[in-house]
Amino acid sequence: MAVEDTGRTTHTAVALMELRKRILNGDFPGGTRLFEVPLAETLQISRTPIREAMSRLAEEGLLDRLTNGGFVVRSFTFADVLDAIELRGVLEGTAARLAAERGVTPEGLAQMQGVLARLDSCFGASSDDVDFEAYSDLNAQFHAILVNLAGSVVLQREIDRATRLPFASPSAFLSDKTNIDIFRQSLHVAQEQHRALVSAISSREGTRAEFVAREHARIARRNLEYVILENPDLIMRVPGLGLLNS
Amino acid sequence: MAVEDTGRTTHTAVALMELRKRILNGDFPGGTRLFEVPLAETLQISRTPIREAMSRLAEEGLLDRLTNGGFVVRSFTFADVLDAIELRGVLEGTAARLAAERGVTPEGLAQMQGVLARLDSCFGASSDDVDFEAYSDLNAQFHAILVNLAGSVVLQREIDRATRLPFASPSAFLSDKTNIDIFRQSLHVAQEQHRALVSAISSREGTRAEFVAREHARIARRNLEYVILENPDLIMRVPGLGLLNS
DNA sequence: ATGGTTGAGGCTGTATACAGATTTCCGGTT
DNA sequence: AACCGGAAATCTGTATACAGCCTCAACCAT
């Protein structure tokens, strides 16, 4: 019997990924109501896993529940995306502050410094020369370690949740589709902030750590403003920005 | 035909309320796995609404999903509850800061000042004389208005979510079962912080507003420490503290 | 012309049967 | 005695039938 990977994954998982993909792609504009029966026919899956998948997407924040049952695609305005980025800054700032205040283990600090050094080596001689893909991976690692160093599962869950909206993720402007001059140049500033974060945490300077992390998130804000206001053609190249409304 | 209220509400809602009640009451210790079939038999409801209810409870943060399906009751340590309170402080602090920085409408400010005045009138001549029940209601209103004044649906959702854990709610220590001297006395300090919050927001002092709100949440932290360390008999009288572990 | 009422269509809520997967326990073997 | 294997029990995943409710539209009455 041939190995069927699609047979291994549940129908719920298929529906979840498929619906998420279509929503993020902008196939369903914000406010669109999703009906179980047509979706079940489209995806060739019964209503039960569709329901389950929509419930998960509501948990992710991509769908809203209607009072009398049913789901609609959540709509995001430009201001909403800015607020989501600011929120991430606040939460990561709190993680940084707690890491500094409560102290981190030498192993944790070493881990972070290791990623910091590897991020450094992504930059070449010219200021335009950056290994974008490697930077993107390492940046995700850096942020994951930061959240970990706070040592709070409650905070970790909230950050995971707030970060699940793709445009609010620390990697939002680091997809391979956004390898553009203006974003590449912002990485020098970002890396300097990474350095400041490690310095603040290792010196147990909580307030400095908190506000550096906040300002770090605001790089994403500036990148977003550039995309929306000055170069709207890029909108579809930033993950999740396809569902942006009005 | 007689009016059947139970016939109006769905089985999902019944299961949701019933399970939530039992979890918060501590009937299922943290880590307990909840099986669909026995629960369906116990509650005289089929598996489908039970599943749906458990999915909602996972969204609320009371249950965790297992990797291969199924749910377990989430376990909270003392440190987790402290972190949840600190998190609320951070989020409400952000709401206060944004309200101050972005400015609020005269109507919004008047609304908040109205509740502030009514909170004042809950206090009697003696420092021990407080209309506890009225204060509890108005306090909830005050916090709701604060979140509203920030004018961010993204932030509002996060605060609603973080606050859904009963012990992290601004009203956690204001249930009628916790009408105790030491909690009543903390209300004078809390009300002074309410005043400072209104002052800071109306003067557009963002930083002051943010840190007053954080400190305000830490009253709950002190109350919690009192309950746990000095008067454990009270644990079962604080909403949601029944599911606290180790 | 406007308002209310009634009916039909369609959507979600629920129960249940069956299938697939996983875990557990028991027995045998090394 | 410990470990491995297999079978049974049990749990979740899924499809589907049916019931109830909500909405919307059309028609009738005033």
If you had to describe this structure to a student in words, what would you say it looks like?
The structure is a homodimer of 246-residue chains. Chain A is built from ten helices and three strands, in the order H-H-E-H-H-E-E-H-H-H-H-H-H. Mean pLDDT of chain A is 93; it is low at 1-7. The first copy, chain A, starts with a helix and ends in a 16-residue tail after the last helix. Chain A has helices at residues 5-8, 11-24, 36-43, 47-60, 78-102, 106-120, 132-149, 153-163, 181-202, 206-230; strands spanning 33-34, 63-65, 71-73. Chain A is mainly alpha-helical. The longest helix of chain A is centred in the middle third of the chain and has 25 residues, at 78-102. In chain A, strands 1-3-2 form a three-stranded antiparallel beta sheet. In chain A, 63% of the residues lie in helices and 3% in strands. Chain A binds chain B through residues 51-52, 55-56, 58-59, 61, 79-80, 83-84, 86-87, 90-91, 94, 152-155, 157-158, 161-162, and chain B through 51-52, 55-56, 58-59, 61, 79-80, 83-84, 86-87, 90-91, 94, 152-155, 157-158, 161-162. Chain A binds a DNA duplex (30 and 30 nucleotides) through residues 10-12, 35-37, 45-49, 51-52, 68-70.
Strand content of chain A: under 5%
Helix and strand sequence of chain A: HHEHHEEHHHHHH
The biggest beta sheet of chain A is recorded as:
3 strands, antiparallel
Number of strands of chain A: 3
Low-confidence parts of chain A lasting 5 or more residues at pLDDT below 50? 1-7
- What is the oligomer described by this structure? homodimer
- Rg of chain A, Å, rounded: 20 Å
Give the fraction of residues assigned to helices of chain A: 55-70%
In whole angstroms, the N-to-C terminal distance of chain A is 51 Å
Largest interface, by Cβ-Cβ below 8 angstroms: which chains and how many residues each?
Answer: A-B, 24 and 24 residues
Structural class of chain A: mainly alpha
Average pLDDT score of chain A: 93
**How are strands sequenced across the largest beta sheet of chain A?**
1-3-2
CA-based shape of chain A: globular
Number of helices of chain A: 10
